[in-house]
């Protein structure tokens, strides 16, 4: 049975956001995906999903974000694929309360899908490997959210190496008033050119720097290949980045963009009193590989 890692409270599920502490993008592959090398980290910002049984077959969905129940909705895809690939018919009512901004590079949609899959895996006793295979069909970073915590992602992000959890570093988030579509961000990067070979040495060195609380080394090694091209294409992001640098608190470690944008984050040490959010461990405290 899958280690679901879903927090439940009378049908309440929490779908946590992620940061990319390191994100390098390689060339486009034959399948049109890009090679990635990233260091994922879940944080304490979350969407809420209220799930309950209903007597009528099918899924009744609603959201405070006016999301349609269609293939563009990651929860729709999770439920549809679960039914198709496991043979289980769903009788559910789902309400989504969005807290993670869409198009912000925090993985909200992917986390929502993974959280529903974990719930269904537990409810219908479906094994972890089957759920992992379903998650890959929904999105590249959906598999990561099945456990969360700290992990290095390779391939298109679905090949995961879960690591010992990092201390509870503190984080402030900055939300420029703009949504960045991932496909467009990749287009910008392709026009600029991507590296032919991704060297994973630095991502492991960065992880060690976090463990050692070597803040200068963290600043030196952390990167996001999308940051420059996306901020140049969106003045709103560039403006917020400049403002963040100019207003850094004394104990701030760095400012970085997460994913393909648009969210920026300020990173603080674990002992800092700054930062509204914190790093989270893997679900159930386990960081073993899927």
Automatic annotation (TrEMBL):
Binding of ATP, residues: 101-111
UniProt keywords, alphabetically: ATP-binding, Isoprene biosynthesis, Kinase, Nucleotide-binding, Transferase
Biological process according to GO: isopentenyl diphosphate biosynthetic process, methylerythritol 4-phosphate pathway; terpenoid biosynthetic process
Top-level taxon: Bacteria
The GHMP kinase N-terminal domain, residue ranges: 73-149
DNA-binding found in the keyword field: no
Domain called GHMP kinase C-terminal: residue spans: 207-273
Class in the EC hierarchy, top level: transferase
Enzyme Commission number(s) of this protein: 2.7.1.148
GO molecular function, one term: ATP binding
Family classification: Belongs to the GHMP kinase family. IspE subfamily.
Functional note: Catalyzes the phosphorylation of the position 2 hydroxy group of 4-diphosphocytidyl-2C-methyl-D-erythritol.
NCBIfam families linked to this entry: ispE
Official protein name in the record: 4-diphosphocytidyl-2-C-methyl-D-erythritol kinase
Gene source species: Kosmotoga olearia (strain ATCC BAA-1733 / DSM 21960 / TBF 19.5.1)
């Amino acid at each position: 049975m899958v280690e679901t890692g879903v927090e439940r409270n009378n049908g309440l599920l929490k779908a946590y956001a992620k940061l990319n502490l390191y994100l390098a993008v390689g060339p486009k592959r034959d399948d049109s995906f890009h090679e990635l090398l990233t260091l994922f980290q879940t944080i304490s910002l979350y969407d809420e999903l209220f799930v309950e049984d209903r007597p009528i077959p099918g899924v009744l969905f609603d959201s405070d974000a006016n999301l349609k129940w269609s293939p563009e909705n990651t929860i729709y895809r999770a439920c549809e694929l679960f039914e198709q690939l496991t043979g289980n018919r769903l009788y559910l009512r789902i309400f989504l309360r969005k807290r993670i901004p869409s198009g912000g590079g925090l993985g909200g949609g992917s986390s929502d899908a993974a959280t529903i899959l974990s719930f269904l895996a537990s409810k219908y006793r479906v094994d972890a490997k089957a759920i992992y295979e379903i998650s890959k069909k929904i999105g590249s970073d959906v598999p990561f959210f099945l456990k969360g915590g700290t992990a290095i992602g390779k391939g298109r992000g679905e090949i995961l190496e879960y690591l010992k959890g990092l201390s509870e570093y503190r984080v402030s988030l900055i939300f420029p008033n703009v949504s960045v579509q991932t496909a467009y961000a990749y287009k910008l990067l392709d026009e600029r050119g991507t590296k032919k070979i991704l060297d994973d040495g630095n991502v492991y060195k960065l992880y060690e720097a976090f463990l050692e609380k070597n803040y200068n080394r963290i600043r030196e090694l952390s990167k996001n290949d999308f940051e420059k091209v996306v901020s140049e294409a969106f003045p709103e992001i560039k403006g917020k980045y400049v403002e963040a640098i100019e207003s850094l608190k004394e104990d701030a470690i760095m400012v970085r963009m997460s994913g393909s944008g648009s969210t920026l984050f300020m990173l603080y040490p674990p002992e800092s009193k700054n930062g509204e959010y914190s790093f989270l461990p893997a679900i159930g405290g386990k960081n073993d590989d899927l």
